[in-house]
Amino acid sequence: MSSSPPAVEAVIAAQALKPVTQGVPTVAATGTSPSFADHEARVSPDAEHRDTHIPVTATGLGSIRGRRFMLIACRGGRLTSVLPVETLCLLRRWYEARRTSHHHVITAGPLCLLCPLCPLCLLCPLCRNASADRRGLTPYPYIRPRPAERHIVMGLRHRLPATTLGRIRLAMVTLSCLFLVYQLVDIGGAGWSNAWQTVTGATIVLIATMLVTTSVRGRPPRWEPLVTPPLVLVSGIAMVPSFDLITLASGIAAVQSFYGSTRSWTIRTIGCVIAIPTAVAISPYSADRMTAWNSWAVLADMPQMLLVAVVLRGIYVAIRSQERAGARAMILARTGSLLLSAPDVETVHQIGNQAAGEILALNPGFAMIILRRQPGADGLTVALVTGLPEDVVGRVVPDALPAGPGPLFADVAPQFQHWRIDDLAVDSRLLVGGVKPVPDHVFDVLRSLCNQVLLGETGRRSHADLDHRANHDHLTGLPVRALFTQHLFKAVETRPPGTVALLNIDLDDFKKVNDTYGHSAGDELLVEVAFRLREAAGPAGVASRFGGDEFALLLTSLNDPTEAETIAKALCDRLVQPLRLADVTVRVGASIGVAVTEYAVTATELTRRADIAMYSAKARGKNRVRLFTPGEHGNVARHRMLEDQLPHAIDRDEIIVRYQPYRDLDTGACTGVEALAEWAHPVLGTIGWQELSDVAERTGDLAGVSGYVLRKVCAELAELPAGDGLRIGINVAAHSLLPGFADGMLAAVAAGGLSLDRVTLEIVEAEQIDDPAAHEQLRVLAGHGVWIALDDFGTGYVSFASLRSFPIHQLKIDSSFLTGSEDALDLVLSMGEVLDTHTVVQGVTEAEYLARLRRTTASAAQGDLLASPMTAGELAAWLVALPPLPGPALRHA
Known about the structure:
Number of helices: 28
Distance between the termini: 137 Å
């Protein structure tokens, strides 16, 4: 071969593939070395690899025996392959380039994919990595085949055996069958009858069929070692050259070396070796002394055939051992992964038993037994078996196992005479038996599997124990609220309406037992109550302890909605019975609220209804059962809704403040305004300050609500003109007058920019106002210029002596006195004169009431007749306009 001095590049470009013969001159041999000029074709399927180069160069067009060839080389001058130019021209059909907006893609064709020894290995998507590794090159995974062709090729590849041994077997069978087909045309000669040639051909076909059947089944028939030598003998008689007979026998022996046991292989190999000289001796060509059976040409090949059979058998044994070891390791790895996700111990046992079966299937002739020590059993109990009948499970064997425990299982496995024993744990043992001595690799893998199963059992039991502790009360063993809620939601969603009931139970006088007899007695009481709840729940119900003395009971199999109330009453009677504790007998009761599912009632609503019914039962007295009814418990439901949603009212800015002025009866001037806080509930509408404060007191949010209202008033009215002593009244519940209240209020007013001498603290006349701590807070505020006003005066119980014990600057008379006798109104107003306070009469809604007040000593009047509650902006405009008082004239005009 020769090449031209100038390099001729075979350019495989992504833009357009052109035949490499275009513009390539024919050159003669010069004896010079080819020069390699690199051409770097930029081929990339994405922007990330846009600058990646495929170092493929084509240099030197030469000829061998008149045929032109192209040298294909890699970067650096290393030779890759030599291709005929005609083949290179065909590459144009196998590769195509597709231009996109930014890059090109080379797409490989089907021939490149199917070629097992592709010379352009750098461009082959399937074999490029292995080929490139052999040549020390870098693979390029971004060159990809056409999708349709890849699907076809991958389908063919999936039909091939997955293991190395399977592929070797397939290749050996294929070559042997091809040779047998070839031998069909070379049977017999002169002197052979057609019948004998037919018999010989049928024998060869039978041999090929037997080889194919063995390959498909994965194992030869049992009679195959005895039949194969006679078949070789019959077919070999008609073969003219003795070399063909030796090749036939060697091929069959080689193929069958990869199947069957060692005994069958030995019989087959020896039979085939003996069949060779026998066939030569019987053949008529041997009689013509063309080939003698004892000639060196025949006898010299027999040791070679034996050596080939032995070597191939050794290869088979090595490959089989390696694949079995890999399969065992894969089984252990897969089993470990499955055990990690097993939900319970029973699943762990199933996974372990299945894995043991797979391992023993790889190594037939063995069995595994796991012995466990069960509570109360005198000895070890068979817990798990693989390879033996299942009725062995549960059999008890002595602790001191003999060296050979075969007699213990002779009735079910008499063939297992060889046993190995290992202690897995303190209370577990592993027994592996076999028809032959148990090899180390089998015993070790089964022991590893058992250790995995033991670890899986420990993990599942630990997880189950932690799960039980997390979802069950440690004292009573009852489910906690979270687990109970899951059962409740499931029952409500799956059961028909009217068949599920929820009982909310609160013990009466439990605190008394705890305080009188100690916490140990209280714990005993809770345990006994839990026992009685389980009895009432039955097999279909679920009892739960929410915490403290709160319990719940879920009934899921009601025949009638009224059955729930019957069960609740029976439970209430059961709980009220005396309870015998360790040191004392106590007696408690229970308030039980019952709610039954209805159409469109969710689990959350059912819980709320049962809670409302329980509070209703407790409010009516102890040891009662109340069934929730919308008509009877509507107000309670409303209160519970307000209590649940109040903490979010401030965040949603649902609490608003309106201002209602009060006017001086002498001059008509506005002397002050009262800040009225309201809750604009999105569902229930406007909630007044009195109900709002009551709800806040029950939920413990009173201080937060009062502080929010105070800050909002300061922010809205800080810039309001003072006028003639205009004061701003802020309502505060007497429950809020706790230590630290005065300091907090002073700080809030100062931060809001409101002058303290304009603030009036309006307190509803209540029992808590007599608290000395409340008096101290009022004195601190009064010392800083804050007025103290008693709201709704005359409706409470505060005595005259109590009114003398703390500073009071204003009395706001309740509106009920406007509809009563004039003497009662005059009496209340006289208290203001005695205390020397400013008096304001509330609820003036009629002109008649205003005319009546003008005849009294009242200082000011407040009501819708004079001014309705308004926003801060409306108040500022109203103060500017300040309409006159209704009526003919002022009191002191």
